[in-house]
Amino acid sequence: MMKYLKIAAFCLLPAGILSCKKPYAPPAVTSTNSYLVVEGVINIGADSTIIQLSRTVNISAVVTKNQVAGAAITVESDQNDIYPLNEIRRGYYGVVGLNLNTAKKYHLRIKTADNQEYLSDFVSAQVTPPIDSIGSTATSAGLQLYTNTHDPNNNTHYYRWEYNETWQFHAKYMSNYVTNGTEIVPRSADQSVYSCFANDTSSTILLGSSAKLTQDVISQAPIVFIPSTAEKIETKYSILLRQYALSSDAYNFWVNLKKNTEQLGSIFDAQPSNINGNIRNISNSSEVVIGYISACLVQTKRIFISNSQLPVSWKTVYPYDCLVDTTYFTAPGTAGKSNPTGFNQVAAFLIPLGSTQIPIDPFKIITGQSAGTGYLSSGRECADCTTRGVKPQPAFWK
Q1: Fewer CB within 10 Å: N-end or C-end of the chain?
Q2: Can you tell me whether residue 75 is helix, strand or coil?
Q3: What's the pLDDT at 261?
Q4: How many CB atoms lie within 10 A of CB 198?
Q5: What is the pLDDT of residue 29?
């Protein structure tokens, strides 16, 4: 959640023809501090509560994630109800369907493997209103997705959203053949690597507020923009949107975090500031802990968008430069000569297991005095969709 800053000091000679830059590495870049980061929401409804624990890493570090394993986490009420979470995988802790009493307050207790104990403040349970709709607007540049919601009781006012995207895509070329390590054979249906599914999650902080409005209504809040050339909308696309109700303190935390992580870099942006959450080390109040724990009913909504619903002028641009190669059993000789070189490119480049080249279709050519047979082939990233996705269709897909 820190961004690298480099300040250049320019020295202008009197003649105005030379300048120099002096790099400045802020202490934050080389600091040995590693702060605990707590992410997640206490879901008071029937869906799962997932809490992620990690520690910050230096910008210069090789690793980008430092998940915290072996912790003991519990959700506790102000009336001494205790709900333990289980470690699902390294750094992720969860429990299914707490269905908590909205009249009580809740906090999170964390005991790490190094015997440090952290506690969040008690927060009131908030009932998030449903998502009214997810809409879209198509422009020449792409598809803008937005959401609408409202609270008829006029109680919420502060909102946050996260999303998961899933889309079906195809390899650039359909490979009809596959190697078994000894020869090239026709590819069976279950060996097809042409159609796959990929997914992504929101990477920006999405917030909305109706606090300055007379009615608690959020209209066309931007969620995500998809360029018209994006592979996501080549065939079919789906987005699962999650909506969280926030308190004013939680909203201010997320606004501050957004400013510190997404809106820095120019002279017109906000200056970095402290990010004050509601979690603390109970034996060391001076320790910095990053995160804000809320308790709310999480609302979700999923929509599907098919390519047939989009402008016909939009054309997907494949993310790689893909070429089709001719791979010969016996390569032809040089132009004007009928003698082959004798080099078996198929055996060298296509038959070995794990080859970077994928056979597409066989071919036979006769050009002047040169002749050859073999396979059309392409790079694995162009003919095998599993390099970037998975073949099984998600259970929710329709």
Answers
A1: C
A2: strand
A3: 85
A4: 15
A5: 54
pTM metric for this prediction: 0.84
**CA atoms of 86 and 99, how far apart (whole Å):** 17
Cα torsion angle, 231, 234, 240, 244, sign: positive
Rounded Cα gap, residues 298 and 245, in angstroms: 8
Cα(328)–Cα(308) distance, integer angstroms: 40
Cα–Cα distance measured from residue 68 to residue 52, given in angstroms and rounded to the nearest whole number:
8
Predicted local distance difference test score (pLDDT) of residue 78 = 97
Cα torsion 214, 220, 223, 224 to 10°: value is: -160
Q: Torsion angle of alpha carbons 332, 335, 336, 342, nearest 10°?
A: -20
How far CA 386 is from CA of 181, 193, 198, 392, in Å, comes to 19, 6, 9, 10
DSSP secondary structure code for residue 214 in this structure: S
Task: Tell me which H or E stretch contains 85.
Answer: strand 82-89
* Cβ count near 105 (within 10 Å): 16
Reported as half-sphere exposure (CB side, CA atoms, 13 A), residue 15 has a value of: 3
The values of phi and psi at residue 262, to 5°, are: -120, -15
Query: 55 by DSSP, 3-state: which?
Result: strand
Q: Nearest CA to 125 among 241, 44, 16, 192?
A: 44
Contact 164, 50 (CB under 8 A): no
Using one digit for the tens of pLDDT, what is the confidence trace for 40-62?
999 999 999 999 999 988 766 66
Q: What is the DSSP string of 97-152?
A: -----TTSEEEEEEE-TTS-EEEEPPEEEEEPPPEEEEEEEE-SSEEEEEEEEE-T
Spans of the chain below 70 pLDDT:
1-32, 59-64, 263-274, 331-341, 365-371
pLDDT confidence of residue 8: 33
